[in-house]
Amino acid sequence: MKKTALPLIFLLLCIIGSAFAYPRLSVEKSTTCNSCHINPAGGGMRNEFANYTVSLNEFCLPSTKQTAIENYKKPRLSESVVVGFDSRHLLLEDGSVFRMQTDFHLSFEPFKNFQYIFRFWENGINENYAIASMFDEQFYLRAGRFSPAFGLKNVDHTAYNRVRTGHGSNIYLDGVGFTFVKNSFQFTAEVFSQNDQGIYGFHAMKTMEFKNIGLFLGASYRLSEELLGTNRLFPHAKAIFGGASYDRFTFMGELDLVGQDNDTLISYMNLTTRLDYGLYLITEYNFFDGNRDIADGADEFLRFSVELFPISFVQLRPSYTRYTDGALKDESMYFLQLHFGY
Questions:
Q1: pLDDT > 50? residue 221
Q2: Regarding predicted confidence, which is higher, 265 or 168?
Q3: Residue 188 — φ and ψ, nearest 5°?
Q4: Quick check: helix, strand or coil at residue 306?
Q5: How crowded is residue 296: how many other Cβ atoms within 10 Å of its Cβ?
Q6: Strand partners of residue 297
């Protein structure tokens, strides 16, 4: 196999079914994930506030904004049914097109403050869970199959802090979760059972605003049972993450330690510059060291992207990736992502 094919294969394996989440909005707006997502831990189906307020006012070029508003249709089909979808395609360097994601979201609310969420994809249902909110949406209980809460839920799921901590694309586990939200503070505790392996997670984050600077701090901790001498695909993992936003600039970062003895070190950094609403420049840095000994080699890459929303619910994202260390050192890759999300 040619070395130049490895980045592409890795990309395709990791990006299929990626979640649609923008953690930088938590920094910019000093708010927690439940403001825009039905799952209070973020990711997955957006709520009606996200679809209207965010997509129409944030993710839309000003020149086409009025057209989008005039033609907007609410996702609510009835008093108890809300729908959504995500369709992503990747245009590769050779001109071929790869389908990354075709998901249909459905929220059924038979009673006030109680919903059942489905995510359909080409192989059936990959996410389904019940969620109940109590005490003026300060407490949430979830039960079923859903995405674990851990670190930053990056838009790009090829980032090392996602795929190499066991939180890559299309990872949904059977379990129960509890979330408490108050005054821009959020705490989540989760218990999962994956092929008889117990997985326990804790996730906390706090957003705040200080003199026109948005701040975001958080930490995640995951424990997993050892079966036959191994933790399988879900080793112990710890993460600290945070960010700051001022005017047109938003910075986010995450540091991960993976393994019972913290053998693996992972870091991620993201700088987003808003040229205008609906047009962003994004620089990402990814670093992975399997044994915290850089002398033995590490994986590292930089990615530069333009994020363009010509109209609400439509995203164009051309990207250039440069591998600066590791097995793919000095390799480069270009691709264009087209996403329709509602």
A1: yes
A2: 265
A3: -130, 135
A4: strand
A5: 9
A6: none
Q: In the chain, where do the E strands start and end?
A: 81-91, 97-111, 114-121, 124-134, 139-146, 173-182, 185-194, 197-210, 213-224, 237-246, 249-258, 264-276, 279-289, 299-311, 314-325, 332-341
Q: What is the reported pLDDT for 293? A: 59
Token pair for residue 65? 């904004």
Using one digit for the tens of pLDDT, what is the confidence trace for 3-19? 444 444 334 333 333 34
- Return the residue matching tokens 């691709």: 335
Q: Is residue 147 a contact partner of residue 19, using CB atoms and an 8 Å limit?
A: yes
Residue 56's domain spans which residues? 3-341
Alpha carbon distances (Å) from 86 to 16, 126, 242, 268: 12, 14, 27, 25
Look at 38-42, 172-176, 327-331 and tell me which has the smallest mean pLDDT: 38-42
Please list, in sequence order, all residues whose beta carbon lies within 8 angstroms of the beta carbon of residue 228, skipping any fewer than 6 positions away. Answer: none
Look at residue 139 and give its three-state secondary structure. strand
Here the CATH number for the domain that contains residue 44 is 2.40.160.10
How many domains are there within the chain?
1
> How deeply is 156 buried, as exposed, middle or buried, from its count of CB atoms within 10 A (0-12, 13-18, 19+)?
buried
- In the numeric block, which tokens belong to residue 5? 């094919």
Q: How many residues does the chain have?
A: 342
Please report, for residues 47, 71, 72, 252, 270, the alpha-carbon distance to residue 75 in angstroms, rounded to integers and kept in the order given.
9, 13, 9, 31, 31
pTM (predicted TM-score): 0.88
Tokens standing for 312? 């609400």
Residue pair 301/287 in contact by the 8 Å Cβ criterion:
no
> What is the pLDDT at residue 47?
87
- Is 50 exceeded by the pLDDT of residue 169? yes
pLDDT at residue 109, as a whole number = 95
The answer to whether 39 touches 21, Cβ cutoff 8 Å, is no
